[in-house]
Amino acid sequence: MGLRTGRLDVPLIGYARVSTVDQDLALQRDALHQVGCTRIFEDFGVSGAKTERPALTAALAYIREGDVLVVWKLDRLGRSLAHLIDTVSDLEKRGIGLRSLTEVIDTTTSGGRLILHVFGALGQFERDLIRERTQAGLTAAAARGRKGGRKPVVTADKLKRARTLMTQGFNVREAATRLKVGKTALYEALAMAEGKTLTMNGPCDSKNWLHDVDRQPNDDSIAPQL
Q1: Spatial CB neighbours of 55, under 8 Å, sequence gap ≥ 6
Q2: pLDDT tens digits for 6-35?
């Protein structure tokens, strides 16, 4: 039994997925068997939001040109509309069809291809909307004096405390350990504040707070933690 697409018998490869361990694959499995799938790949307890889907990865590696991937419903295949469109486009480039039983979509037919082209346009529309909203949000934040991106690891308070530690004899490595921040992050914060380029292996100028970068602290040099 197979899908008629100009050939008498097209191999149908099924894919089924349920999001939680409490759900049952029986409904999907029975529907895929009924249409004649010769092999079914199953992801059990895998949420639709997850990137890693071992059975889907295996199915996409197994399926060959001229085959048809069959799913019970489109949301079993894609994490989002954009991901679904990308997956279908990849299948199309490989000469592989897609058939969804619930939505009655078959990309090996002209009608099915038309529907997916509409989906593709909607996916691009969705991406454009997200891009516009993100840009609008950044523009509005900038107008209020805020900048996008991550907050700095080394805050102004930590930078001040680091400088105090280094005036007491600590080097950058030791100060970073005390403040529980990365050495590299502290180097970069100091460099930005001083307007200089600091090296990881030692001082780049004559400032005392950059001396002996790799020195290990001893009992006499340890000052009380701020």
Answers
A1: 15, 17, 41, 42, 43, 46
A2: 444 789 999 999 887 668 889 999 999 999
- List the structure tokens of 59: 């199915």
d(CA 164, CA 25): 63
Mean pLDDT of all residues belonging to the chain: 77
Nearest in space to 104 (alpha carbons), one of 17, 31, 38, 37? 31
Active site members: 19
Residue whose pair of structure tokens reads 């090296």 in the numeric block: 199
Q: Which residue has the higher pLDDT, 182 or 71?
A: 71
Query: CB under 8 Å to 46, separation ≥6 — which residues?
Result: 17, 18, 19, 52, 53, 54, 55
Structural domains of the chain sorted by starting position, each given as residue range(s) with its CATH number in brackets: 12-124 (3.40.50.1390), 156-210 (no CATH)
pLDDT by residue (tens digit) across 148-189?
566 677 888 888 888 898 888 888 888 888 888 888 888 888
CA 81 to centroid of chain Cα atoms: 15
Residue with the larger pLDDT of the pair 191 and 26: 26
